Amino acid sequence: MKKWIMLSSLLLAAMLLAAGCGGGKNNKEESSASPSAAAGGAAKAVTIDATNFKFEPGEIKVKQGEEVSITLKNSQGNHALKVEGYDKEVKGNATVTFVADKTGEFKFICSIFCGKGHEEMIGKLIVE
Ligand SMILES: [Cu+2]
């Protein structure tokens, strides 16, 4: 009886070790490779042109898990872009990169008061 318990606990320990090793490896692979792998090797790069008072394009569509790289170009005026729900912000003529891990529709707005049409500067990030 004692022998049996020892044998089964040994087996259990071996199984746990094997599972732990495998799991660790998988996690490492996922964290380093999955964002670019999902996008086919590169981040989805979008350049948004900001003028008074519009974002062009006003809609970005990506897949869940994809890495998104948003470059905001201030062609006219001084604007910034803030993605609500993701809490990501990019000021004019800079780039912000993040992984779109939540699905849904997220509003992006201009976060610098830029004048009369400021409230109209609204776009949409769609994560499918
Ligand atoms: Cu503005």
Automatic annotation (TrEMBL):
PROSITE patterns: PROKAR_LIPOPROTEIN. Transmembrane segments: none annotated. Residues 1-18 form the signal peptide. PANTHER family: AURACYANIN-B (PTHR38439), COPPER-RESISTANT CUPROPROTEIN COPI (PTHR38439:SF3). Residues 38-127 form the EfeO-type cupredoxin-like domain. InterPro entries: Cu-binding_ET, Cupredoxin, EfeO_Cupredoxin. This is Cupredoxin domain-containing protein. It comes from the Bacteria. The keyword Phosphoprotein does not apply. Keywords: Copper, Metal-binding, Signal.
